[in-house]
Write a structure and sequence with these properties.
By secondary structure, this protein is of the alpha+beta class. The chain has a domain of about 180 residues: 2-Layer Sandwich (Alpha-Beta Plaits), CATH 3.30.70.1450. The protein is built from 27 helices and 10 strands. α5 runs antiparallel to α21, α6 runs parallel beside α8 and α18 packs antiparallel against α19. The longest helix is centred in the C-terminal third of the chain and has 26 residues.
Length: about 625
């Protein structure tokens, strides 16, 4: 008997499975899926749909018929995740998360450790009950404001915000979509392995607490030393984005054909690369003017373009340059009612994959685009026509009321707190009560989490926390399609024996190692795979392998399933392994290596803490 009381069942040595054509075909599909996930040649949801098509077309070898192929859409895990995303959206509409963040940060002052403590404490516990993606999206402007008020670089706090949300997600079953999917896979494997079952609400909370404590202490006392100050405290956005190199003031001269015309006419006349971001008329200033705004003689247009087009403006008919580039930048930053801030393209934004059209952006969002940052690097010259991706950061200028509206949209994350946020704060007690009820019903096993979560969604609408048309906006549909696509892939891995074959290879190569070391290797392997493919995909691919490998070495399959589950939800080595890492990429001004610098030691620390905790609580 192990120290925790687990008694392994007597198992025959794992026999070598036959390498069949079916297994080779499924391996090919897996390799194809990984290649698409890594290269991102297709959006993640499109890749998931393609996987369904490929698996069904190859039914003679994969065993996935059309009904099984689409079973992921009706799967309990998929519907539960959908319901939890809606519940998280309801909570966010009340402003509870933002208020918690502000209150926890109010005492932080200029102490970096107090600021980090506030960040971790405000993020981790909440992420155990709400999807951590919206939690981070809501707290990015709060934490940025805390940093600026405390004269701290936001770079010191934003990666810790993302990491704290990830470890917090391991506190309960509903903390992440990965936990819910892992629970479903574990339940499905229960017919083969008696030790496996569907997770209860607080199945691994004791281990989650250890992980949160270890991760939090590391972030507070060690991590910030490893993060450079990429963005200065109270950064001058115009200077950070080198905006003065790309803006100019031009005046509408007397007799100009643009006098009496519109901003749209001016844009058409001056060229596609020219975007009018302000119109100055005497003491009046129009921020992000609409296309139908009328121009008069003497109006000064502040335009954003590239260096070549700025030079060409000297010969443009009807206008003449006035002042120097520095004066144009000064016009942007002068007190004219416009707020300059950053917008991060969110995970399920309609902007993903679209080419940037500053004029169309100005019409739809009411904000003028001044600059673009991608993967931590400034895109200086030509931003018009650039395809936008998740995590891209746009520098914009907008009136205060427009910024309020932008803060409520799901397409972008505003990296600065709105001055007058409009939340349904009167509904906050009701929303919290509904969430507590959902958790309590599932924890007491009165009804499954699927039923309690769906009931919670209905209660949110009936109570007025959410409007019916807001249900769809609260769902990150790419996650739903991803789940629906990878679930049949997992079924194919199990059904064809591909998972058992991989498990045999693992046992053969690592069978001479102590069981706890093999468990640790599964944790590390899962963490590395999650960095290049989706965390949900890594769970589907590796849990069957882990369970089979554990059986092959007479170990506890449940321990191996937990190791894979925890490792898949803690991706610290780069910005693409987890969506919350992308959300802080631009506002923090990070480079790719910054994640590895702080994340690698944290990954190693949590691998030891998690594996030791599993051995203590459940045995190996």
């Amino acid at each position: 008997m192990s120290v925790s009381g687990y008694v392994p069942l007597v198992q025959e040595p794992l026999a070598q499975p036959e390498l069949t054509t079916d297994i080779l075909v499924v391996f090919g599909v897996v390799a194809f899926a990984i290649a698409l996930f890594v290269t991102e040649r297709l959006p993640i949801d499109v890749t998931a749909i393609l996987l369904i098509v490929v698996l069904v077309v190859l039914e003679p070898w994969t065993g996935i018929d059309p009904e099984t192929g689409i079973s992921g859409f009706a799967n309990e895990a998929t519907i539960t995740v959908l319901a939890m995303l809606i519940l998280s959206g309801g909570i966010s509409r009340t402003g509870v998360v933002q208020e918690l963040g502000r209150r926890m940060a109010s005492f932080a002052g200029e102490s970096i450790r107090k600021q980090l403590f506030a960040t971790v404490v405000a993020t981790s516990p909440v992420s155990g009950f709400l999807n951590n993606t919206p939690v981070v999206a809501l707290l990015v402007p709060v934490v940025t404001d805390v940093a600026n008020r405390g004269n701290t670089s936001p770079s010191k706090l934003l990666i810790p915000l993302s990491y704290a949300s990830q470890v917090g997600g391991m506190l309960t079953l509903i903390g992440t979509s990965t936990n819910i999917l892992a629970s479903d896979v574990s339940a499905r494997l229960g017919t083969q392995y008696p030790e496996l079952h569907r997770f209860s609400m607080f199945e691994f909370t004791q281990l989650g607490v250890l992980v949160v404590l270890a991760g939090g202490l590391y972030l507070i006392f060690v991590g910030h030393y490893l993060l450079p100050e990429r963005v200065p405290p109270r950064a001058d956005y115009l200077e950070e984005y080198a905006v003065e190199d790309y803006v100019a003031d031009v005046a509408v001269v007397p007799g100009s054909p643009l006098a009496g015309a519109t901003v749209g006419d001016a844009t058409d006349a001056l060229g596609d690369e020219i975007d009018v971001v302000q119109v100055i008329r005497a003491a009046d200033r129009s921020i992000a003017p609409r296309r139908d705004t009328r121009l008069e003689e003497g109006d000064v247009l502040v335009v954003r373009t590239n260096r070549t087009a700025i030079t060409a403006l000297e010969d443009a008919p009807g206008v003449e340059p006035v002042g120097r580039p520095e004066s144009a930048a000064a016009d942007l930053s002068s007190d004219g009612g416009g707020i300059i801030t950053e917008l991060v393209v969110s995970l399920d934004s309609r902007l993903v994959g679209e080419r940037l059209d500053p004029e169309a952006f100005r019409e739809e969002f009411g904000a003028a685009v001044l600059g673009l940052r991608r993967h931590g690097s400034l895109v200086g010259e030509r931003i018009v026509g650039r395809r936008l991706d998740v995590g891209d950061t746009l520098l914009v200028q907008a009136p205060p009321d427009t910024l309020d509206r932008l803060a409520r949209r799901d397409d972008v994350i505003v990296a600065r707190e709105s001055a007058r946020p409009e939340y349904r704060s009167d509904k906050a007690p009701i929303a919290i009560a509904i969430m507590i009820g959902v958790v309590a019903v599932a924890a007491l096993e009165i009804y499954p989490i699927l039923i309690s979560a769906l009931a919670g969604v209905v209660a949110m609408v009936v109570a007025g926390v959410l409007e019916p048309n807001e249900l769809y906006d609260a769902v990150e549909w790419n996650i739903i399609f991803l789940l629906a696509g990878v679930i049949p892939l997992g079924i194919a891995l199990e059904g064809t024996g591909a998972a058992a074959y991989i498990a045999f290879l693992v046992v053969q190569s690592a069978g001479f190692l102590p069981t706890i070391v093999v468990l640790w290797l599964f944790y590390i392997t899962t963490g590395l795979i999650t960095e290049v493919i989706s965390n949900n995909a890594s769970v589907v691919l590796l849990i069957p392998v882990a369970a089979a490998a554990a059986t092959g070495i007479d170990a506890n399959p449940f321990a191996f399933v937990l190791a894979v589950t925890f490792a898949a939800s803690t991706a610290f080595l780069g910005p693409i392994g987890y969506q919350t890492n992308l959300f802080v990429y631009g506002p923090g001004g990070y480079r790719f290596g910054d994640y590895f610098r702080i994340g690698a030691p944290l990954q190693l620390l949590l691998s030891v803490v998690t594996v030791a905790g599993i051995a203590f609580f459940w045995g190996v």
